[in-house]
Amino acid sequence: MDLNKIKDPSFLMEMNIDELNELAYKIRQFIIQSVSKTGGHLSSNLGIVELTIALHYVFNSPKDKIFFDVGHQSYVHKILTGRAKQFPTLRQFNGLSGFQKRCESKHDVWEAGHSSTALSAAVAMAIARDLNHEYFDVIPVIGDGAVVGGESLEALNHLGSIQNKVILILNDNQMSISKSTGAMNNFLNNIRISNTYNRMKDDYRTMLQKGKLGEGVYKATKYLKDFVKHGFLDDTIFEDFGMDYLGPIDGHNIGELIRVLNIAKTNKKSVVVHVVTEKGKGYSYAENDKEGKWHGTPPFNVKTGNVLTSTNKKSWSSIVSDQVFQWMKIDKDVTAITPAMMKGSAMDNLFKVFPERCFDVGIAEEHAMTFAAGLSISKKKPFISVYSSFIQRAYDQINHDIARMKLPCLCSIDRAGIVGEDGPTHHGVFDIGFLTPIPNIVYFAPKDAKELRTYVNTCFTNFNKPYFLRIPRGSIDDHPVDYHNTLKIGTWTIECREENYELTIICYGENVMRVKNMIEENHLPIRLINARFIKPIDYNMVHTIFKNDEKPIIVYETVLKTGSLGSILLTYCNENRILRSFEHIAIQDHFSKQGKVNEILEDEHVDIKSLLLKCEELLNGKKEN
Ligand SMILES: Cc1ncc(C[n+]2csc(CCOP(=O)(O)OP(=O)(O)O)c2C)c(N)n1
Ligand SMILES: CC(=O)[C@@H](O)[C@H](O)COP(=O)(O)O
Ligand SMILES: [Mg+2]
């Protein structure tokens, strides 16, 4: 069958199990080929092919609400709901989203990108349905990584106390991006490997084969309830939360999936269907290397498994991590924390060499921050690395637990700025606006590897306050720095041209080097200020620039304008009665699109070309005067 011709999932009803298996094979090949060209979340999608087919076979979307937590594993759902043709545009500018998107299809009933929201939404949908006296099923599909996120557990707590039915599909592939961690994972693992379970599973299989479960849903459900009550599953956490439990089910056996999903469909109460799948299934490289590489991949060669873009530069994340590593070697109090992003934050080596001082707390940004506060109050020196967009979750913990008590820590805000293909849910453009109002913190955005390493040294040398660090996605040239080298908190530097300038640009982070190149390539009479401390700002320099100089000023940022450095400077000028206006280039009050970083910057008019145009306009205007 031609996947491009699929309009909606109704065609599945005409297919027998062999045909459904053939379809699964085709979809897998399609996804491998397609993602090899565009890049994307490969292994989670390869693992969920049969499960998604079975869900759309048993339930009637969009009347029944099938939706995926995070949404990075919704490619099969997209194909079955008529979007195969758009896959060449996956994650591209103005193309198909890598997550569910309500504007793309009526079958996308929820949107995410961040983890652990699906069950909350499902509980609400089920309650609203029952209030409206409507009849449909609500079926959130949640991974073993996402199910431990605080919000999932809060929603589970709510669901367990109400009568409204939700069918929670727990897609257990034993992996988050790295290996799943924590007690819930141990619990799921125990179910999977228990001898008792295996015996029970065989009994259950036999019953399925003999068609006994087909004799009547009531009988089947009762059997499963007895199974739950008297068998090895008598204290599943889900039962304790007031739900029924079905499973574990082989997530690559379509026949078994369909049978059990039908039982879940007719079950009266909320039910967890525990489905065991294999991440990366059907692509040998992804099956053999489950540790992160194939979770989200750039374009690659299908035959060799090699990615098509490679660089000699080092990621910003790995440079932070390496400098922290140097400090872990000499200071046994330094500890490291990641909320499930060990690979992305390049912390593998820390975990390998110092396992007893490194903590992957799972998808739990709130806990990660308060846990860091607890370590800090106990005289440890916590380093935490969290993506900018994910730390939005932990605002209160930074404010209430860390900053208010002035607890020393070093928190690296990774993936700050426009991140690219992950799109609006993942752009790190809000952190300056929401972190800088918090008292007691220091916030630093390095221009290069040297400044970055020097700041890490500064923090560990004087570990006495909440230090924050802001780094983007991407790579740069590395520059080793001895750990004695430090810098002065709250100081900005003049990056180029102290005299004979006609215009001043103020920027920070990776933009400093970009702007410097622009100035040098175009031989422009511009003074460039490296505003590396976003908090505290360099009041002396700011005063000098804004008070004593009549030449034009541009504050250039690639974050949201609201709450940005520009708005901090406006407030400063106002407070100090400095009557001075300046040009402010930053992102307007909306969510930026997905695509290549340069395309998005251009779309937002905050690219270097837009800056250059503004400079030329101001410089020419100056000359004409
Ligand atoms: C709040 C938040 N933190 C971290 C992430 C990054 N992230 C995306 S998918 C993922 C792993 C999810 O694991 P699981 O739910 O088991 O899905 P799988 O990929 O195994 O199918 C993580 C950590 C995120 N999207 N949102
Ligand atoms: C879906 C999700 O949230 C992550 O997989 C994210 O896409 C990772 O981003 P990086 O590729 O920047 O690590
Ligand atoms: Mg998983």
TrEMBL record:
BP GO annotations: isopentenyl diphosphate biosynthetic process, methylerythritol 4-phosphate pathway; terpenoid biosynthetic process; thiamine biosynthetic process
Top EC category: transferase
EC number: 2.2.1.7
InterPro entries attached to this UniProt entry: Dxylulose-5-P_synthase (IPR005477), THDP-binding (IPR029061), Transketo_C/PFOR_II (IPR009014), Transketolase-like_Pyr-bd (IPR005475), Transketolase_C (IPR033248), Transketolase_CS (IPR049557)
Record pathway: Metabolic intermediate biosynthesis; 1-deoxy-D-xylulose 5-phosphate biosynthesis; 1-deoxy-D-xylulose 5-phosphate from D-glyceraldehyde 3-phosphate and pyruvate: step 1/1
Family as reported in the entry's similarity comment: Belongs to the transketolase family. DXPS subfamily.
Oligomeric and partner information: Homodimer.
Known function: Catalyzes the acyloin condensation reaction between C atoms 2 and 3 of pyruvate and glyceraldehyde 3-phosphate to yield 1-deoxy-D-xylulose-5-phosphate (DXP).
Protein name in the entry: 1-deoxy-D-xylulose-5-phosphate synthase
Native organism: Faecalibacillus faecis
